[in-house]
User: Fold this.
Amino acid sequence: MSTASRPATARLWLPSRSSSSPCSSTSRRSTSGRPLPSPEPGTPVDRVDTPALVVDLDALERNLDRMAAFATRTGKRVRPHAKTHKSPLVARMQLDRGAVGLCCAKLGEAEVMADAGVGPLLITTEIAGQPKVARLVALRRRAVVLVAVDDMDTARTLSDAMRAADLVLDVLVDVNVGQERTGVAPDGAGELAACIASLPGLRLRGIQAYEGHLQHVYAEAERRARWRECADRMLAAHEGLTKRGLDSEILSTAGTGTCAFAAELPEVTEVQAGSYPFMDSDYAQVEGLPYESSLTVLASVVSRQRGDTAVIDAGWKALSTDAGMPAVKGRPELEYVTKGDEHGGVRGARMTPGERIELVPSHCDTTVNLYDEYVCVRAGVVEAVWPIAARGRIQ
Amino acid sequence: MSTASRPATARLWLPSRSSSSPCSSTSRRSTSGRPLPSPEPGTPVDRVDTPALVVDLDALERNLDRMAAFATRTGKRVRPHAKTHKSPLVARMQLDRGAVGLCCAKLGEAEVMADAGVGPLLITTEIAGQPKVARLVALRRRAVVLVAVDDMDTARTLSDAMRAADLVLDVLVDVNVGQERTGVAPDGAGELAACIASLPGLRLRGIQAYEGHLQHVYAEAERRARWRECADRMLAAHEGLTKRGLDSEILSTAGTGTCAFAAELPEVTEVQAGSYPFMDSDYAQVEGLPYESSLTVLASVVSRQRGDTAVIDAGWKALSTDAGMPAVKGRPELEYVTKGDEHGGVRGARMTPGERIELVPSHCDTTVNLYDEYVCVRAGVVEAVWPIAARGRIQ
Assistant:
């Protein structure tokens, strides 16, 4: 018998209930069926295999609408960061709501977005090394691309490559406003901008100034005060361009945690928030944000608890822990504990194998990067399964 | 002009040197070319795009040979854990050297291995929930599978499902020997084994007893002493089966850090070590192991250092940090520091954009799970690119 012909049977198979005798066995109908990697639309979420990355579509759409309303209210453009969702489908939803383009952290993400017809694209991290310069040229040939640059040698290399290919690349000067990661010092922005403006393969478009270190400062007053220091650095860099007569058409800045502050600065033209579609348990502690959690990891209990801890099938390979432990959705009294690569524990619950639980990741970006697809749910039923097309595109 | 027709040009493109003028631009030949996701055999490693997961094939083969020699010397079988490498190709190298089968952590890994003709397969974690039981039946239909079970209800469910499909599933009693994760208590092993033996869809084959909590106890004397306590629990469980007249043909135990101890116990039939092919910077601190590091993440500097820290293109999405920070290969004076999802820092180095560095992951399993392929290198040249076929198979 072909096992491939009966997926519906596998999908609808029900296990027997425990009988009174601990070892009795009850014969059931066939359980044959090939592995079914993705649930079909119409599947109740309680029949979705685990661990699964679940998106609450209603909550996602509310978050996207809130950001669109922010743009309307403030007059700022929104260029959402695709490094969070890595999905051209979510990108399209953002563009449909008025986003002016997408940010990508890596060239590989931008390639995926470009191939899906999504753009224009801002690559927010520096491009270095021969293989990537060649890929950037190829990407520029087929897409509108803007790249952040913080180094004169890099600028020259990019200009040479673009010029040799009869192309011109749009560039933002990447400015360090306090994160101490990439970016020139604010007082060096003008000199780098002038260099970029002089290079025939590049076109200076403005400044990128990202204050990533402030996004998760929980207290709103502290976050605002520290943002003000970053704003001063942004403005110093901006002045470095304008006093040289260089155009600074774009000032791109801010994440989900700071975009409301950035909107108060007239010089800011756009925000590059990424996490707002999904949020996470760490962002949930950041005061004053109007976005809600829409992303969970659905997990199953696989082993009876020892004491009050149930063992579940979601470990480090299913949930990133770089921002701490996930939260248990709707049950703040329960605590997730690490049990290794493949397992987690849920402390405070009396559960049996097969029971389900939903976890809110502590960091949406790195958790999304572990999955191949979103299981998109509305009212407890799978509505769609979306590939995470740029998952793993770290090059 | 078609850009797809000239990948070789992209591959061989060289950037211009910096000239004496900081802003001069030198025209070069064409850099066109479509993205090239995988390096071709023959590519020098210093032209491989980054971040890349690199395997030193000589070191890998020496590690595999050492484990094969261990098996010959001790008379114990080796059933290597595929959750580390997730690659049927590495599995085949292990089988070619005498391994008796593979362990898989998840059903999804076992499906990938079975589809590649690799087996027999031991699934070392509990199977729970309807979707997985149906998938296990489908897998059992086409592969020799052995499953660890720690619960009578689960055993009955599996038996019912197998019986309904006219199949019999081989089962090991999973025993908790001190890790406090899955597994019955040692004094409950006999009762569960008797239950399993009575179920028509299951066949009792023996015991799994995994002391995962001891693998990374660095001091050899302490690791051995604590292993002895686990051994007593293993033997108690084993006696629980034998005193009931139940066969305990298999006693499967031990990881890379404890397999030498396990080999001293006559009752142990096999070890299920996983990390020995690759090792990692945490395992490197475990005393007394004969294996060497063969896995690195190749990364590039993307931004000039602030002070003595260079910023590289490998962050949390390229290197797991659940076991701590990676080490910098060959340069113990340098320190990796976290810079977020996409970036890391290397403290103690003066480097410029485009320069390369190799990092030894702190935890091989969770780092491998971030990549789609191994770039396999011998003597500085890419010899092969192997897909990590079971990456992300966490269900």
Notes: The two ends of chain A are 45 Å apart (CA to CA). Chain A touches chain B through 114 residues (CB under 8 Å). Confidence is low (pLDDT under 50) at residues 1-35 of chain A.
